[in-house]
What we know:
single chain; alpha/beta; Glutaredoxin; 5-stranded mixed beta sheet; two-stranded antiparallel sheet; 7 strands; globular
Amino acid sequence: MAAAILMFLSSAAPTERAAAAPGQEAPAMEIRNSQGSVSLASLRGKYVIVNFWSSDDPRSRIANALYDRAFSKNKTPEVACISVCTDETRSLFESIIKADGLQEANQYYHKDSRLSGLLTDYGSVGAGSAFLIDPDGRVVAVNPDVDDVKSVIDSPKS
């Protein structure tokens, strides 16, 4: 009986999560939108920008539009964008996608993920944080601008 209680308590104990940071493996993620689902594991071999934005953070909304325009599938196939809206209202998220002319395939609403720890996994970042993940699944930059991303993907591989 004591062993069963110990097993229960140890399984109920909080586990420590590693937040996304340069040099660390990016936390696993699978997220859905109206176009389907995507996971970081399915994007291995590409650079991935995981961008968190919100309608009430103009800087993050502008960064989202810049990433979307610079790294569309047609322009830069070696880079994938996962743009996660942290808004509480889905209708606002949908309106901004249309108003900003964003590619729906790259836009995700955080509550659709069914991953309660999505924001926690990325360091409780909320809006205004972006992570560049290399083809091996490691975070190589936090909050890079478009030129920073281009510089990383264009640099010679060692």
